[in-house]
Amino acid sequence: MIFNGMDFDTYFKNYPDENGYFGKYGGVYVSEELKAAMAEITEAYFTICKSRKFIAELRRIRKEFQGRPTPISHLERLSNKLGNVQLYVKREDLNHSGAHKLNHCMGEALLAKYMGKKKVIAETGAGQHGVALATAAAYFGLECDIYMGAVDIKKQAPNVARMKILGANVIEVTEGLQTLKEAVDAAFAAYAHEYKDAIYCIGSVLGPHPFPMMVRDFQHVVGEEAREQFLEMTGELPDTIVACVGGGSNAAGFFSGFLNDPVEIIGVEPLGRGEKLGDHAASLKYGTEGVMHGFNSIMLKDENGEPAPVYSVASGLDYPSSGPEHAFLQELGRVKYDVIGDDDSVDAFFELARMEGIIPAIESAHAVAYGIKLAKERGRGSVLINLSGRGDKDMDYVLENYGLR
């Protein structure tokens, strides 16, 4: 399909380019020493990703350990309540460990074993990436250090407990706002000292090349499955697909299955408390071009041009930038990026639970809220939402701060 001059038949062959750019976004903005480490990872990935043995092992893991494929559920009661638009969800909450994150963590840990590394290092916000990587590390017998902001540790106590039970070393980060950005800062600093024996398994389609590409590729299974399943269920493609976007890993994988189809694609960022800087984390909506954490993308900046403070009820979405491929897809006009605030997301959290018996992660509830908004606005059609994770980790926080709605 040709869209605004872009041939999506050949998109994945051309993007990112050999230097890790999606148009002008992406790249490798790190020290010379870390550039060598990134080059080592890139070389290993391009070798192993074409290996029959690696592909067969990853497929076996997905089927026998992760429980893939995850299903699509038709939200019949909720759809009927809202009108004539039919809502569906891709159930990544049923992926082992409770979210989409294990899709790339098992791939990254398998790559670490191939490279002879003894440890995996990562950051986490909502804790789902941390749990997934701790799970992968336990599976492969690797050491695991997880950096997590002190604020998020308090908000996501169940996931902190899971990481510790799985054998991970959870390292509390107390600098700055003590959330996801600071956790990434700390993890990168640790990796700079340990890269010879460890691999940094970034939690989203962020960071220096090859991570945005590699995480997207490992998450592509979500979009690939969803496209095939929806066609089998309904005999046609969905009119619209929706996913939440913080860094954007679940969305990148989900969208990749439909980029070459005549399907409307919408990424939903967190509006938080409102449009004022510091009250949201909607970088693609309100940000400008800038470099942080080793890559060029669209980011929220303060008056000094530094990464701005951000906020969201969802710990996994409160990051001041977004993956470079998302910035590129927005620039092309292929994906529309819009926003949903805290209150609507919390309402959707309860609505999905009570109407369909599914408690979503508060991150995923942003996408559900946007799907509900579309269903109220439109007279007909179908919307497929990526339900990127389950809400066990959020229940105590939501009840404590919002009560029962």
In spatial order, strands of the major sheet run: 5-6-16-11-12-15
Helix content: 40-55%
| Number of domain modules | 2
Largest sheet: 6 strands, mixed
Number of strands: 16
Average pLDDT figure: 96
Q: Can you lay out the helices and strands and say which pair or pack?
A:
Layout: E1 2-3, E2 6-7, H1 11-14, E3 21-22, E4 25-26, H2 32-48, H3 52-66, E5 72-74, H4 76-82, E6 86-91, H5 102-115, E7 119-124, H6 128-140, E8 143-149, H7 150-155, H8 157-165, E9 169-173, H9 180-194, E10 198-200, H10 211-234, E11 240-244, H11 249-256, E12 264-272, H12 283-286, E13 288-292, E14 295-299, H13 324-332, E15 336-341, H14 342-356, H15 362-377, E16 382-387, H16 395-402
Parallel strand pairs: 6-16, 7-8, 7-10, 8-9, 11-12, 11-16, 12-15
Antiparallel strand pairs: 1-2, 3-4, 5-6, 13-14
Helix pairs in contact: 3-5, 5-6, 5-10, 6-8, 10-11, 14-15
Question: How would you describe this structure to a colleague?
Answer:
With 405 residues, this protein is of the alpha/beta class. The chain folds into two domains: 23-61 and 101-211, 3-Layer(aba) Sandwich (Rossmann fold), CATH 3.40.50; 63-99 and 220-402, Rossmann fold. It is built from 16 helices and 16 strands. It has helices spanning 11-14, 32-48, 52-66, 76-82, 102-115, 128-140, 150-155, 157-165, 180-194, 211-234, 249-256, 283-286, 324-332, 342-356, 362-377, 395-402; strands spanning 2-3, 6-7, 21-22, 25-26, 72-74, 86-91, 119-124, 143-149, 169-173, 198-200, 240-244, 264-272, 288-292, 295-299, 336-341, 382-387. The strands form five sheets. The protein has a six-stranded mixed beta sheet, with helices on both faces. Strands 9-8-7-10 form a four-stranded parallel beta sheet, sandwiched between helices. Strand 3 and strand 4 form a beta hairpin. The mean pLDDT is 96.
